[in-house]
Amino acid sequence: MPKLNLVGVIVASLVFYFIGFLWYGLLFADAWMAAHGVAAEAADTESPAWMVLGLVLTVMQVVGLAIVLKWRGVSGPVAAATTAALLWLFFALPFNLYAFTYLTAHDATLLAIDASHMAVGWVVSAAILALFK
Fold it and tell me: What is the pTM of this model?
């Protein structure tokens, strides 16, 4: 495994996690919960352990991005963001589309919220990782 900049991975992971907070906690919270059929009261009783798992998943994604950027020898935030956007288009978006395709609801709102969160998170994280090269 290539040597990664630990500070860059930590910063990018925290920023990506914060983007998730903005997406699901502030900007699109009501639309996301409505599309899932979750009442706000039920969301308030959720165990914080799931938030820890969310952070772990975020770090895993950032480490994966960092590895790909290293392997490709990407330098600079614009090239890193472009690489992340392409990775999102050909990997993350198709994964998001599985749920859209195979769940009976075919909810475009959920697809848009989840896919855009990944797109912004990956692009911003990659740009940050490039700054910590």
Answer: 0.91
